[in-house]
Amino acid sequence: MSGSSAATMKLTLRIWRQKDGKAAGKLETYKLDAVSPDMSFLEMLDVLNEQLTKSGGDPVSFDHDCREGICGACSMVINGRPHGPRKATTTCQLHMRSFKDGDTITIEPWRAAPFPVIKDLSVSRSSFDRIIAAGGFVSINTGSTVDGNATPIGKTDADEAMDYAQCIGCGACVAACPNAAAMLFTGAKVAHLVKLPQGQVERSGRVRNMVAQMDLEGFGSCTNHGECSEACPKEIPFDAIVMLNREYMRATVAGKE
Amino acid sequence: MSESSPGRPHSLLGSSIGLKFVMGATGVVLVGFILAHMAGNLQIYLGSDVFNHYAQTLKGTPPLLWTVRIVVLSAVLLHIASAWRLTQKNWAARPQPYASPRRYDRTSYAALFMRGSGLVILAFIIFHLLHFTIGTIQHEHFVLHEVLRGDVWVREENVKILASVPEHMQRHDAYSMFVRGFQNPIIAGSYILANLLLGRHLSHGVASGFATLGYSKGGQRQVAERIGTTIATLVTLGNISFPIAVLAGVVHL
User: Fold this and answer.
1) Under an 8 A CB cutoff, do B92 and A113 touch?
2) A100, A118, A136: which is the final residue of a domain?
3) A103 and A7 inside one domain
4) pLDDT tops 50 at residue B4
5) A9-33, pLDDT tens digit by residue?
6) Is the Cα dihedral A161, A163, A168, A172 positive or negative?
7) Same domain for A233 and A132?
8) What is the pLDDT of residues A171-197, one digit of tens each?
9) B2·A213 Cβ contact <8 A
């Protein structure tokens, strides 16, 4: 065997094809003959789409943008796991060396009512945007620049806020959750802002409004499986949900304004 | 975009987290009852006099008995009602299931089958009440009584004698009811099975309740999980020991 052919893999892909939000979809099977282990998962899909386009077929629609693991656009359930088999890795940062020659790979979109399928693997995640718009912001005075250290923030608070702020809003937590709950996402946003002095002004209204919007969008509710933080490519800790519960209790049961 | 303006509280019980608080808070009440119920029943190992005295004390204190009954029954109903509402919302949140099986990395069977174990426990509670509280099942054991002769309580099965003895001179023979009930291997087996499932329900439920009520952050999560495992183990071992002890003849008439 020549060096190049020994290094490539033959793959069978089972991909969810769905014409639009209304059509019923189904898994279609495709074969790829020469996949390099050095390709990213999305590059492998690019190869498939090139092949489909050349043969007059309809390319597979999937979301992608930065392809460096920070934008949160790429979103697909690969072999039953959001973003595939590697921990703390987005689909775009997953490489084909994580698979073996001859593997069958099943690819599906996120499954949740608030994430309706647009086409194939692309889903609308506007529901996340509306949760953010409901309270994921801080009010600041514009005008002259504030002194750098005018508002001191403790090291542990700053670190924790940064941990929660790592959320890229990809929706893997919802896709992973047996209940399609968005509490890790919402919790990360609430916890990130509550840890900072800038987040105190809207503190109680924020959690109430974001939870109200989360419910309105039709997400499920956490039953403490912990699958969300396991699937999260940014490893947002499960603590985000505990923080969300605490903040919500503080704002509603304790009635803090 | 939000329907409620900033700072305006929306209905706590209408919200997902509000319903979860109800699950957690009623869970605390129910776990407290389950532990107390088990502790009380452990007196079976101290003999018939201690056990029947315990039963007599409970029945003889209606304010306590009925307060506990009403609180526990309300907690059960609220626990089920919020579970039902949350389940409806969760099912509606994923109308289309995954075409290929989801691979779970972290959760447990106990967590995935909470609804199943909960339904079996509900059926068991109804059966248990009909058996030992209302006395519909095995009625012949439920009517057993003891009468006071001098200063000792003795078993009396003669209905005519019982009818002639004044109320304060007789008491329910809960000990014999308990022992005779568990001498039936099908009844004993159903109690063992139900309590094994109760243990699984608690192993996830207790740790889960801690998280819902806001205690499970960082290292606390491990503590919460340990408390859950400990309570589940205690309740399972304690409760299944009763039918096993009767079947093994350790506890006998």
Assistant:
1) yes
2) A118
3) yes
4) no
5) 999 999 999 999 999 999 999 999 9
6) negative
7) yes
8) 999 999 999 999 999 999 999 999 999
9) yes
Burial B42-78 (b: 16+ CB within 10 A, else e): eebeeebeebbbbbbeeeeeeeeeeeeeeebeebbeb
Round to whole Å and give the CA distance between A243 and A226.
14
A224 and A133 in one domain? yes
Are the C-beta atoms of B156 and B145 separated by less than 8 Å? yes
| DSSP state for residue B153 in the 8-state scheme | E
Question: A86: nearest CA in chain B?
Answer: B105
Convert the pLDDT of each residue in A67-126 to its tens digit. Answer: 999 999 999 999 999 999 999 999 999 999 999 999 999 999 999 999 999 999 999 999
Whether B9 shows a pLDDT value over 70: the answer reads: no
Q: With CB atoms and an 8 Å threshold, state whether A257 touches B215.
A: no
B83 and A CB contact within 8 Å: no
Where does residue A166 rank: exposed (0-12), middle (13-18), buried (19+ CB within 10 A)?
middle
Taken in order of first residue, the domains within chain B and their CATH numbers are 13-88+108-247 (1.20.1300)
Predicted pLDDT of residue B14: 83
pLDDT-derived band of residue B3, with 50, 70 and 90 as boundaries? Answer: very low
ipTM, 2 decimals?
0.92
- Nearest alpha carbon to residue B56 among B167, B163, B162, B150: B167
- Tell me the whole-structure pTM to 2 decimals: 0.93
In chain B, the residue whose alpha carbon lies closest to the alpha carbon of A246 is B214
- Whether B103 has its CB under 8 Å from any CB of chain A: the answer is yes
Do residue A108 and residue A197 come from a single domain? Answer: no
Contacts of B232 (CB under 8 A, 6+ apart): B199, B200, B202, B203, B206
Please give, rounded to a whole number of angstroms, the shortest distance from the CA of B115 to a CA of chain A: 11
Chain A nearest CA to B38, separation (Å): 27
Closest CA–CA distance from residue B159 to any residue of chain A (Å): 53
> Tell me, what CATH number does A51's domain have?
3.10.20.30
Averaged pLDDT of chain B: 93
Answer whether B103 sits within 8 Å of A204, measured CB to CB: no
Chains A–B, number of C-beta pairs less than 8 Å apart: 176
Decide if B222 touches A, using CB distance below 8 A. no
